[in-house]
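Thread: Modeling a multi-component assembly for a lab meeting

Hi all, long-time lurker, first post. My supervisor asked me to bring a structural picture of a complex we are working on to next week's group meeting, and I have zero experience with this. I have the sequence lines for every component (773 residues in total). Could someone generate the structure of the whole assembly? Inputs are pasted exactly as I received them:
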Amino acid sequence: MRLADLSSTELDKQLCGAGLVLGVGPFAFRIKSPIESVHEGLHRLYSNYPLLRGDQFADFDVTVAGGRGVRRWWRPQAIFRFDGGEPFLPLPFTHAFPLLEWAMNWCVSMHVQRYLLLHAAVVEKHGLAMILPAPPGSGKSTLCAGLIHRGWRLLSDEMALIALQGDLVTPFGRPVSLKNQSIDIIKAYAPEAVFSPTVHDTHKGDVALLKVPTDHVHRIAEPAKPRWVVFPKYAAGEEACLTPRSKAQSMLELGRNSFNYMVLGRTGFVGLSRVIDASDCYDFRYSRLDDAVAVFDQMVADSVVA
Amino acid sequence: MHHHHAVSEKAAPSLFRLSSPPSLHWASWGDEYVVFDEASGQTHLLDPIKAYILDVLSGGNADVLRLTLLLEKALSVPAHVNSHEVVLAALEQLERTQLVEAVPL
Amino acid sequence: MSDLLSSVWLADQPPVWSPWQWESVLGQARQSGLLGRLGMLFRDRAWLDAVPAGPRHHLESGVTLVERQQHEVQWEVHNLRKALRDLAAPVVLLKGAAYLMASLPPARGRLFSDVDVMVPYAQLQAAEAALFGAGWVSDERDPYNQRYYRQWMHEIPPLRHVLRGSVIDLHHTIAPPTSRFKVDADRLLANLEPLPGCEGIYVLGPVDMVLHSAVHLFQEGEFDRGLRDLLDLLDLIRHFEQQDVFWPDLVDRAHDLGLQVPLSHALRHLTRLFAYTPPVAVMETVLSIQPPAIQRVVMDWALKKALKPVHPTCDSAGTGLARWTLYVRSHALRMPVHLLLPHLARKAWMRRFPGAEKPANA
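Re: Modeling a multi-component assembly
Sure thing. I ran the full set together rather than chain by chain. Output:
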């Protein structure tokens, strides 16, 4: 059963009651929220994701609720609750749906130790996965959003899940978070793409969430083997430039960009070295999405031939 | 006052050892080395010289002189390079990352 | 739904829970800092295979986390030992670090943050100086707070390592000087146990360790850790009482140090929550240390409410003042991350989040 199969009334009932149990890759989230924009967001962007029955096990029970007391209607708030506590400070009410997304990321990054979690996007073509680590503001999400509309499958936009046995990347694809100008860029680049309404004045500026293409959601159980680690850097006006990069340094950089590399100790070290073993590492500077697509497609072509 | 067991360039050749019981794990590509120190949970990027010294010490304690001689042979250090200085510098860095320590007298 | 967690520790059979119950239990465990302990319980009893995959992954993740923490604490003790090598006094580990290094049962599955260390009062300054030299710097930068800590509370503010971020709490006694229970540290120092393979580092003698646990439980405001601390106490007592001399010694020592009240309260709650009772032969002596009836009733009521895990599924109707106080306290946004030794990537991630609370000890 998929979320789209629920009537609006039924969706409301679950969200306001025992929770809507949404399957996202290897995890299930029990989502509770009385907030309209959250209902809307789920309906629009998660329509093709599987639902579990209400009485099945959910990994994380997340509530996004309105403020209490006066904050219900005066400078109204949206609050994320988990395990009886509130991990974040309240946000403005209009940020409720992005808050849900951030909350889901937080849950996984804080509590999951059965994968090595890297702060990176992952896309795949012809069974070969490309890991794109990048600090915030490097254009990774825009790049990712562009690639997935030019034949690359989305495995993840924020968080790469590396299996601890072997080195496969497990998909955990969710709506891609885009900010400010990127929103318009992708709307032009992929006119068929579906977006959430833009939320203004978040701490990141304007934020909108891009729906994951249906086919990618249907293939969410299909892992992929890493083949490249590419550190992207958007630089206005620059010609696309792919330069090889030290594997050892890339390994350390990936470790620094990991949520739980330190926690996993030796297991994390072994897992990460396997990823690096399997992958050619590059720095990539670019300014145009088309250039990036061309370069990456060529890498696939070269790889398939070789 | 912070006392650092300064790697002395003077008289007594200090004896060095790995900081903790064998708990090092390695990965390498070309002449780059990454070592994971299980005791401290830290991961380090090492050049061939530090990697070699660490490898020697994994087999047992050694003093600066011995390390220098071994290094010269194993890595074909060019004649004009003061390998003694090189070893001292490497040991100092390895001490700072707590991978090795001077054996207390 | 009620508190499922309290009953599991003394069970001989693996509990059989529905998926919803599992969600509840895991949430309660996380909130009480007991997920690792729960995971280790299941692992030690070979119950894990019977757990469905979903919950099992969380138990295993809990175990991974505590094992990592324990590893890090061992490294900290290693460094602590090096730093205090020249101190002319015993260095005594307290609480979690002590349980871990002495391989005592409470260490199994324990999550903890700071390393608690005690030295004789006369050596306090020398110890602080040595730790400073090795990279542990006072966490408190405000000069007024510093003075408050030192002059009025006779305590040293927590010391944080400049590189590793680990924290040492340096004490010279086991009860906060502001506490109504003042313990003469010299008596404790006369009764230390050495740590094999760890020269210069000691732990408290068994009865002192138990009394410390009892005093600590009833001093701290952290009642959302109450269940965990009571479990520690239960584990300690069940471990040490294998020696016949333990119970008489404990009661004597409690009288000696003026700690009858906390011990008595602690034992009552062990009975109430875990159906644990001291051996019959000892019961009379134990009863002799009970505080006056009225005091008992009030304390019991407040603590009973407070000692349950703080989780929505544990809330009973009409919880009153105790729960409210507890609820407010748990709202001090205690994120699990503060229990971990921080590292750069995690900090960077935290900065990204909208108004994510800084760790409690940052």
